[in-house]
From TrEMBL:
<keyword id="KW-0732">Signal</keyword>
<protein>
    <submittedName>
        <fullName>Aminoacrylate hydrolase RutD</fullName>
        <ecNumber>3.5.1.-</ecNumber>
    </submittedName>
</protein>
<feature type="domain" description="AB hydrolase-1">
    <location>
        <begin position="76"/>
        <end position="324"/>
    </location>
</feature>
<dbReference type="InterPro" id="IPR029058">
    <property type="entry name" value="AB_hydrolase_fold"/>
</dbReference>
<dbReference type="Pfam" id="PF00561">
    <property type="entry name" value="Abhydrolase_1"/>
</dbReference>
<dbReference type="InterPro" id="IPR000073">
    <property type="entry name" value="AB_hydrolase_1"/>
</dbReference>
<dbReference type="InterPro" id="IPR050266">
    <property type="entry name" value="AB_hydrolase_sf"/>
</dbReference>
<dbReference type="InterPro" id="IPR000639">
    <property type="entry name" value="Epox_hydrolase-like"/>
</dbReference>
<keyword id="KW-0378">Hydrolase</keyword>
<dbReference type="GO" id="GO:0016787">
    <property type="term" value="F:hydrolase activity"/>
</dbReference>
<feature type="signal peptide">
    <location>
        <begin position="1"/>
        <end position="23"/>
    </location>
</feature>
Length: 348
């Protein structure tokens, strides 16, 4: 079981507060290093060392092998406010079905290097991940990306189409171009100023409203503390700076215009109560109201991607792999085991 560095008292306090984001303690909790030093992962953490843009970097990753292998490899790509550790339930589901699972922390995130100067792009992150897989002898993989990881998985599939056996996107962002729809641009310095205001209270409130469709459970709290702990630690400014650079990448590099070029068979797993749109709080109200409509966005993406299957989760928000893990993993494993057919349905 994952040993999360969070006090039982803190979890209990959140529960006793009526699971309200406003009532929960704002800044009680652990402080972690800039590479999540002090926070335990559900499996041994390995480091892939490489050179990029003049930096000596380390990409942290999990490599979890099943007891009875089916010969296939699944690569998990985390979202902006997630880490390899947050895939814990998905790793168990996949390895239980015979898949070898590789779950990296991308550069700039979690337990991986956070360079002071780095030109972040989805192409660069895809190239980094491709180099990691090559070092492990993986020539063919199933890509499973959530949120920002869905954008990254799409870019990877566009760059290395013959090396992706199947593509899975769980509530990906990048299904719309926020800039084109009217979300104002921000400089990296403005993003940095926003990120320096990060606190457990703000993280919790956002996750409750967006990730979990207004619901809250005590098992969500460790992921709040995982993020907030880095902003309490000695490397808080470096964490915030890399986060600012990454938000600039996400905002300026949409993949929605290239969905028609995606070649692998693709599964879209979409929580219908998701309303995610980066920096929509900065947009005028009339613009904000048009953003993050995931029922519409998911169906449009399924039409644009040539070989797509869409599965909708009516009561889930942005993170159905955490909020409704049983239903999501059932749909995922059924599709992975199925012949290549395109269809649209809701989970049973």
């Amino acid at each position: 079981m994952l040993l999360r560095s969070i006090s039982v008292a803190l979890v209990a306090a959140v529960a006793m507060a009526g699971v309200s984001a406003q009532a929960a303690p704002a800044e009680s909790g652990p402080a972690y290093g800039p590479r999540l030093e002090g926070f335990d992962y559900p499996a041994p953490v390995h480091l892939f060392k490489f050179e990029s843009q003049g930096n000596a970097l380390e990409m942290a990753y999990l490599d979890v092998k099943p007891e009875q292998a089916n010969g296939q490899v699944a690569v998990l790509m985390h979202g902006k406010n997630f880490c390899a550790a947050t895939w814990e339930d998905t790793i168990k589901a996949l390895t239980g079905a015979g898949y070898r699972v590789i779950a990296p922390d991308q550069i700039g995130f979690c337990k991986s290097s956070k360079p002071r100067a780095y030109q972040y792009s989805f192409q660069q992150l895809a190239s980094n991940t491709h180099a990691l897989l090559a070092s492990l002898g993986v020539q063919q993989a199933i890509l499973i990306g959530h949120s920002t990881g869905g954008m990254l998985a799409t870019r990877y599939a566009l760059m290395y189409p013959t090396e992706v056996s199947r593509l899975v996107m769980i509530n990906p962002i990048g299904l719309e171009d926020w800039k084109a729809k009217g979300v104002p641009s921000m400089t990296v310095d403005q993003w940095f100023a926003r990120e320096k205001q990060t606190s457990a209270e703000r993280i919790r409130a956002y996750e409750q409203s967006t990730y979990y469709a207004g619901q809250w459970r005590t098992d969500y709290e460790p992921w709040v503390q995982m993020l907030a702990g880095m902003y309490r630690g000695p490397g808080r400014d470096l964490v915030a700076w890399n986060s600012a650079l990454l938000y600039d990448m996400i905002y300026t590099q949409p993949v929605v215009y290239e969905f028609g070029q995606v070649r692998p068979w693709t599964l879209l797993l979409i929580g219908q109560k998701d309303t995610t749109a980066i920096a929509k709080d900065t947009a005028p109200q009339e613009v904000r109201a048009r953003l993050g409509n995931y029922p519409e966005l998911g169906r449009a993406a399924a039409k644009a991607i040539p070989h797509a299957t869409l599965v909708e989760f009516p009561d889930a928000g942005h993170a159905p792999q955490i909020q409704d893990a049983v239903a999501l993993h059932k749909a995922l494993l059924e599709w992975l085991a199925s012949p290549d057919v395109s269809r649209t349905r809701r989970p049973d």
